[in-house]
Amino acid sequence: MLALLALLALQAPADLTRPLTADQVAQAKSWIVMMTDDPRGPFAGVMWFCADGTEQAPKKYACAERGGGKQYGVPKLETRKLGDWGLHLGTVLTALPPGSFLPDHYYRARAFLLEAYLERALDGWVLKKAKTYRGFRQMEDEEEAARWLLIDLAMRADVLERQRNLLVRLMRALPYGKVGARADEVRTLAGLLGDADTKGFGDLRFKIHAMPEPSDIAKVESYAAAAEREELKEQALLLAQRMREYYEPVHRIERLKEVRRWTYDKATKAELELFAATDLGDPFAVVHGGAKLIGVAEQALAAGATTRQGERNLLLLHVMAIVEELWLGVTADFARRPMTRREALGLIEALLGSARAIGWLSPREAETRSEE
């Protein structure tokens, strides 16, 4: 309910100073409940949209003789009305026109992050009954659309400089970022298990959402072993498996090697190769090596921030994001690890230095830090 209220607190992009009226809020709630219980969710149906401008019924090869085309869901009238009010749901990326994430201080991009969160946290939210509705999204088309939306943002100096965190979060929320990042999947599975067994799994669900660490895997496995219901046992074992995959550092290293093949900046490629050889059993080396890699990628990003090379910039940010994920899996025990003052200050300096590049510190915050 809090998540729903957060969505309804959003303001329509037509006038960012005017909130929804009480009647609009009530109507939005009613429509959202209706969509949640509808096997088609926020969609009226599915259609083919052909290259010749025609729309065809959802049958095989409907656009074959019309220059090709794409198939996706058609929003209900209620869905369109909510969109007019600034409440976006059931988003099909393929259907978005170029530049959709740009107007009104990137309002649509921010709204998409909230929508993606609600879909994860509320078991599909308005797609709860429609998750198996065939054809409303085509993954290959969605991945291609996500790539171009991100490239469009990554070629803009304002986004790179002042909206860095927004761009990095979008990389993870869109299909582009989901290929390797399992954090969202882990939180979703933990949430579903917590909903199914509030008393037995509630505390561990909160722990995984708020302060996750590798030691949680053993706790999830212990829960699975003691679970009396078979479906809870299966869900817990799946969660433990996904957590193990998420925290296993070698998976991030393999992804970095893949990204290296497509990274054209020579300095970043060289540093990436050095970092890939880091001893993953040494968390200090992982942090300092990762911070150095992020710093080199940031220098390359700054040098190309005005060259409109969106895909190049996106790959550099992807390198930084993977390092950030890798840190989560190897640094969780620092709080319990004895270290000297020099070691502690060195870690803080490395992590704070990388926070600006990844987008966790704004330019003003970073300047304040450097002055101190």
Structural class: mainly alpha
What is the number of beta strands? 3
Mean pLDDT: 85
N to C succession of SSEs:
HHEEEHHHHHHHHHHHHHHHH
Task: Report the end-to-end length measured between terminal Cα atoms.
Answer: 42 Å
Classify the helix fraction into a percent range.
55-70%
Instruction: Give the strand order of the largest sheet, numbering strands 1, 2, ... along the chain.
Output: 2-1-3
Contiguous runs where pLDDT drops below 50 for at least 5 residues: 1-14
Note the beta-strand portion. Answer: under 5%
Shape: globular
Provide an overview of this structure:
- With 372 residues, the protein is mainly alpha-helical.
- It contains 18 helices and 3 strands.
- Helix 9 runs antiparallel to helix 12, helix 11 (216-226) packs antiparallel against helix 12 (230-247) and helix 15 packs parallel to helix 17 (341-358).
- It has a 3-stranded antiparallel sheet.
